[in-house]
Amino acid sequence: MRIYVTSVFVDDQAKALDFYTNKLGFVVRTDEPLGEYRWLTVGAANEPDGVELLLEPSAHPAVGPYRAALVGDGIPATSFRVSDLDAEFRRLTSLGVSFTQEPVDAGATKVAVLDDTCGNLIQLVEF
């Protein structure tokens, strides 16, 4: 057994697609109409068979309070691993990405947290 897809709730799928592909560098894996929304997944360009991230609409009534609590407490919705956090921080900052926590050492890891512009905080980790 292995993880196939995981998700983040997003306010706007088109805006999320732009952010996750043009800023973070993921590639589209699936983009299928599904009623009012889309089954829209992205993944790492260098891992064509890797885990997919579903950019899931945040329409369910439970999502708003859940995300507000996470963001209010500074808790990331998910975490992405990078090989050089300082370089990635510089690259993303130059693209206008906003960070709520700049890179900091946390023992054997280094972490930073960004705002995905779609209602989530995302943690970047180097280890």
Spell out the key features of this protein:
Glyas_Fos-R_dOase_dom, alpha/beta, about 130 residues, lyase, Glyas_Bleomycin-R_OHBP_Dase, lyase activity, VOC_core, 8 strands
Provide a descriptive summary of the structure in words.
This protein is an alpha/beta fold and 127 residues long. The protein has one domain (5-126): 2,3-Dihydroxybiphenyl 1,2-Dioxygenase, domain 1 (Roll), CATH 3.10.180.10. The protein is 24% helix and 41% strand. It has helices at residues 13-23, 63-72, 85-94, and strands at 5-10, 27-34, 37-43, 52-57, 78-81, 99-106, 109-115, 121-126. It has a four-stranded mixed beta sheet, covered by helices on one side. Strands 5-8-7-6 form a four-stranded mixed beta sheet. Strand 7 (109-115) and strand 8 (121-126) form a beta hairpin. The mean pLDDT is 97.
Can I get a quick summary?
24% of the residues lie in helices and 41% in strands. With 127 residues, it is an alpha/beta fold. The strands form 2 sheets. A 4-stranded mixed beta sheet has the order 1-4-3-2, with helices on one face. Strands 5-8-7-6 form a 4-stranded mixed beta sheet.
- Number of structural domains: 1
Ends: how far apart? Answer: 25 Å
Main beta sheet, described? 4 strands, mixed
**Residue fraction in strands:** 35-45%
CATH superfamily: 2,3-Dihydroxybiphenyl 1,2-Dioxygenase, domain 1
Helix content: 10-25%
- Shape descriptor reads globular
Order of helices and strands: EHEEEHEHEEE
The number of helical elements comes to 3
Q: Which class do the helix and strand fractions yield?
A: alpha/beta
Question: How much is the average pLDDT?
Answer: 97
CATH class: Alpha Beta
Strand order in the sheet with the most strands = 1-4-3-2
| Total count of strands | 8
Gyration radius, rounded: 15 Å
What would the CATH topology be? 2,3-Dihydroxybiphenyl 1,2-Dioxygenase, domain 1
In CATH, the architecture is Roll
- Low-pLDDT parts are none
